[in-house]
Specification:
Order of helices and strands: HHEEEEHHEE
Distance between the termini: 35 Å
Largest sheet: 4 strands, antiparallel
Low-confidence stretches: 1-14
Oligomer: single chain
Number of domains: 1
Helix content: 25-40%
Radius of gyration: 24 Å
Shape: elongated
């Protein structure tokens, strides 16, 4: 009877032991690839809210952009469908209606905020979303060594 109990206990402990960290990260890589493939099958709207602040935390420039993204076999088509912008001028906000709008000769804020926009939507991605937002793809994982620190239950699921 004791042997059956110990065998049952060993099986339950073995069944509850966490998977190998390599298996966990492999599943993460597979999910990343699956999400990329699914995003390539849809035309979607991408919205950006960009804000530049001065050292005193006051808003210097703010833009809202909306793009229509249509993935292709290689790359994607991106069309700006909506744009609103405003810049601070002596405590008041002045609206403008086009990206890279410069209101004075040495206005680098226009270039900075446009660069922020382009940084988040890389032209070299396959779906219009910058690759650096998904660092755990299979190929990126090859650059790292992972180790399992601990497991716990979060919202009724085991997390690693």
């Amino acid at each position: 009877m004791k042997l059956v109990f110990l065998l049952g206990l060993a099986v339950s402990v073995w069944a509850q032991s966490p998977p190998d960290v390599g298996q966990i990260m492999s599943r993460v890589g597979i999910n990343q690839a699956r999400s990329l493939e699914s995003r390539q099958q849809w035309i979607y709207t991408q919205k950006q809210h960009l804000v530049l602040r001065r050292g005193n935390r006051k808003v210097a420039r703010e833009e809202r952009r909306e793009y229509l993204i249509a993935p292709k076999t290689r790359g994607f088509d991106k069309k700006l469908t909506h744009f609103e912008g405003k810049y601070a001028d002596h405590g008041k906000f002045v609206a403008y209606g086009e990206p890279r709008y410069k209101y004075k000769g040495t206005d680098i804020d226009a270039d900075l905020i446009d660069g922020m926009s382009k940084m988040t939507t890389h032209g070299d991605s396959r779906d219009g979303i910058g690759r650096h937002f998904f660092p755990l793809t299979y190929h990126e994982q090859l650059k790292y060594t992972f180790r399992l620190v601990r497991t716990e239950i979060y919202r009724g699921r085991q997390v690693y």
